[in-house]
Amino acid sequence: MTHRHTLRTLTLVAIVAMMAACTDDENSLGVSLIDSMTLYNGKCDTLRADTAYSLRDDSILTSGYTYAAIGNYTDAQYGKVSAEWYTQIALQTSRRSINFDTVTIDSAIMTIVNHRLFPNADSNYNLHFVINQLDSPLHADSNYYAYSCVPVNTSQCFYDSTIRCSATDTVVRLRLRPNIHNVLAQSADAEQFTEITKGLNVRLEGDAGDAILAINLSAVKTCLTVYYRYGTDTTTSAYVFNINDEVKHFSTFNHDYSGSVAGGTTNIDGATMLMLEPMGGYNAVVSFNRDIQRFAAQHPRAVIHYAEMLLPLNDASATNVPDQIIALQRRPGSADTYIHDLTDLYTYDGYDGHCTNGRYRLRVTQHVQGLLRNGYDNGTLLTINSRRYDARRTVLQGYASTDAPKIVFVYSE
Fold first, then answer.
1. How much is the pLDDT for 89?
2. Which DSSP string do the residues of 101-143 spell out, in sequence order?
3. 412 and which of 41, 42, 284, 353 could share a cystine (Cβ 3.0–4.6 Å)?
4. What are phi and psi of 99, to 5 degrees?
């Protein structure tokens, strides 16, 4: 490992030493956007997107992840979206069984850790929580998606009230109704308990205003705590049930695109804009095929040293945008795969899809190398990294825009 770090350090030193790069620019458009630390001796060129479109992301897997989302939000671009959380109630991992049929339960408190509030993480919100028991249990060996739905028992409502949640509230505490006590007062092994209790549906009603709450399921404080006593004892004990990422859970999303710019169509041409919406909304596909073929034909021996994909925002002043966009290589007839730059831990840590100065920047060196080897581009799929729980969305410039998506790269021959 020491040898690897030493080699990596020497490589970076060499890069710094070659900052007099691009002395023979073939096309200098966009070169100023590349960090000078990444420049090699060589020429610069630019690939411009010639095809792009937005497409629905309605088959996204949501079970098994460390975050969930609940709430509602409406905007002119994307219409209305609502999110609900489904979760099992499970025994602690170390417990194989429970004997709760002889205890008196005094209270049941659900605590959930607030990861982020949308649209404004610094604002205060009235959140109308509704928690119901599921009508049938979640299955540990099943996958659940953005469109999945499990029947809810509306006659078993464990919570229905509005609370005030501020920016400083890292944990939300909900005292559940006493009718959940009978559900939890079981003598059963771990598997029987999840079957008997079935699970919970948690949502936010829209009458208290627009808000999407991202829940951190990996946090220890996301749990269901029961305070109980034996017989006539006055001493109260506590037991913590799991509702975290160790149990089966998923988020489901519902969209209403009526009257919105998106309109809900499967594919939207990306000439003027590219729409990126989380929660089973829209991804984007962008292709540089025309320029890839042009460059491959003109420079068959070119060596690509560094490349960045630049994705300008449609509104350069937008601030509440997703933290990160990631890229996948489209493979017709097979599943899309992450570009190699995203998964290679031993490459230079350049820009990795974060937004700076009104544009997203993605390091795509290995990706461009592969496209040039193939001699064509099937398209790169762009998606929001946190799209399963973070409601922030954005709109990018389209391929016919003056400031269209492009790849700027450095090469030598």
1. 97
2. TTEEEEEEEEEEEEEEEES-TTS-EEEEEEEEEESS---TT--
3. 42
4. -125, 90
- Residue for token digits 């954005």? 394
- One-letter-per-residue 3-state SS of 36-91: HHHCCCCEEEEEECCEEEEEECCCCECCCCCEEEEEEEEECCCEEEEEEEEECCEC
The number of domains in the chain is: 2
What was the pLDDT predicted at 166?
80
Same domain, 78 and 49: no
* Tally of CB atoms within 10 A around 296: 16
Q: Are 300 and 75 in contact (CB under 8 A)?
A: no
Is residue 267 one of the residues assigned to a domain? no
Predicted local distance difference test score (pLDDT) of residue 35: 54
**Burial state string for 265-285 with b = 16 or more CB within 10 A and e = fewer than 16:** eeebebeebbbbbbbbbbbbb
The pair of structure tokens assigned to 225 is: 């705590």
Q: Which of 381, 368, 286, 291 is nearest to 331 (CA)?
A: 381
* Residues 163/166/172/175 CA torsion (nearest 10 deg): -30
Same domain, 95 and 237: yes
Residue 395, H or E segment: strand 394-397
pLDDT by residue (tens digit) across 134-186? 999 999 899 999 999 999 999 999 999 999 998 778 999 999 999 999 999 99
Quick: pLDDT tens for 352-396.
789 989 999 999 999 999 999 999 999 999 999 999 999 999 999
pLDDT beneath 50, residues of the chain = 1-33, 36-37, 348-349
The Cα 117–Cα 114 span in angstroms is 7
How far is it, in rounded angstroms, from Cα 27 to Cα 32? 12
Q: Which two tokens stand for residue 71?
A: 């709430």
Helix or strand holding residue 311 (H, E)? strand 303-312
**Residue 268 falls inside a structural domain:** no
What is the distance between the alpha carbons of residues 123 and 198, in angstroms, rounded to a whole number?
35
Query: Strands 394-397, 152-165: parallel, antiparallel or unpaired by DSSP?
Result: unpaired
